[in-house]
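Private note to self, pasted from the team thread so I don't lose it. Backbone tokens:
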């Protein structure tokens, strides 16, 4: 039903035995992890620290780090809009931060082991797993990780932070991220992003995007046995009915996506990304009702978001919302503003004053001037 759904060098010495996407031949021990961009970044960082001329600094950054970027680093920069000028500014103004995470970025063995364990756990719950290359990228605080095409891109400046990371040079909302001790959740983060590389492309409406992110979070929880580290998974259960009611009210509003996903905590719940929790709850209900759990996970991961009847059927089967998507949509339509009168005309008026230059439309409710 279309109207229901209206219009993110150290390489392990082992490599994929085959470059095909044959999941049967892929095992976790074959996982490729690329970290060449870390060494290039620190080489540029050290050189910039010894240069005073800004033109030379920028040129060195481009030559040593950006021009030599791996495929994954280039894709992360493209996906998050990172520029050479931003990197240089961050290096010059956040030296304490960068120096505080350097050790973790240069001693990767324990983190690689955690990542490999996570991949093996994901393969266990989802045997159809296709290989994706994992990249340690050096970002500029706009993403701890993302999954695109057949690449898992880790934002190392986030993902390898810990409780010792010096955050005083960062904005408050970024400082809060490091309070979860990110390195403890590296495997979880990697599995979440790995799931994205297995999913069908997202469709840009709130429900589909919520499922896209919530399913990845659900699978990461099931695969690793860890709890989600995000505040949404504390706020959500504590306020679930209110969260659900607000989500139902926003579901068909095309302007509401950033109320729920990839947003700041400046909202009525004081919490970012509550859409992850809503999507997780739908996935969890579907999984709990399934007889064959691995088939359920496969169905969730491989959902085609362009197949609206299939998405609708799965969501309705969980009975998570207060009514079917059809009922919720009809309720939304019934509450949309309507024009109730035009001030300059009487009912049934056919004549128009040629001197009229203002027409006033009176709606059934005040206009939302923000959007």
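Design output:
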């Amino acid at each position: 039903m279309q109207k229901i759904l209206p219009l993110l060098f150290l390489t392990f010495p082992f490599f994929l035995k085959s470059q095909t996407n044959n999941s049967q031949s892929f095992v976790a021990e074959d996982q490729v992890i690329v970290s060449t961009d870390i060494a290039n970044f620190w080489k540029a960082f050290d050189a910039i620290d010894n240069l005073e001329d800004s033109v030379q600094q920028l040129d060195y950054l481009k030559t040593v780090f950006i021009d030599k970027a791996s495929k994954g680093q280039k894709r992360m920069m493209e996906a998050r809009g990172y520029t050479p000028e931003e990197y240089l500014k961050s290096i010059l103004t956040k030296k304490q931060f960068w120096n505080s995470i350097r050790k973790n970025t240069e001693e990767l063995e324990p983190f690689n082991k955690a990542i490999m364990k996570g991949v093996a756990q994901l393969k266990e719950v989802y045997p159809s797993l296709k290989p994706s290359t994992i990249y340690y990228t050096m970002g500029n605080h706009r993403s701890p990780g993302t999954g695109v095409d057949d690449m898992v891109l880790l934002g190392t400046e986030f993902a390898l932070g810990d409780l010792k990371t010096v955050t005083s040079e960062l904005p408050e909302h970024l400082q809060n991220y490091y309070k979860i001790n990110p390195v403890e959740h590296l495997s979880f983060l990697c599995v979440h992003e790995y799931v994205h590389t297995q999913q069908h492309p997202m469709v840009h409406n709130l429900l589909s995007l919520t499922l896209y992110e919530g399913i990845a979070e659900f699978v990461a929880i099931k695969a690793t046995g860890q709890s989600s580290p995000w505040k949404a998974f504390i706020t959500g259960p504590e306020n679930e009915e209110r969260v659900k009611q607000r989500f139902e009210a926003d579901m068909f509003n095309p302007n509401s996506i950033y109320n729920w996903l990839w947003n700041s905590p400046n909202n009525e719940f004081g919490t970012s990304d509550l859409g992850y929790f809503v999507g997780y709850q739908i996935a969890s209900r579907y999984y709990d009702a399934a007889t064959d759990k691995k088939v359920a996970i496969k169905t969730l991961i491989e959902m085609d978001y362009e197949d609206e009847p299939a998405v609708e059927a799965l969501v309705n089967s969980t009975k998570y919302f207060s009514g079917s998507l059809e009922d919720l949509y009809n309720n939304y339509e019934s509450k949309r503003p309507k024009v109730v009168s035009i001030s300059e005309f009487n009912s049934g008026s056919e004549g128009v004053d040629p001197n009229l230059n203002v027409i006033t439309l009176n709606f059934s409710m005040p206009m939302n001037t923000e959007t």
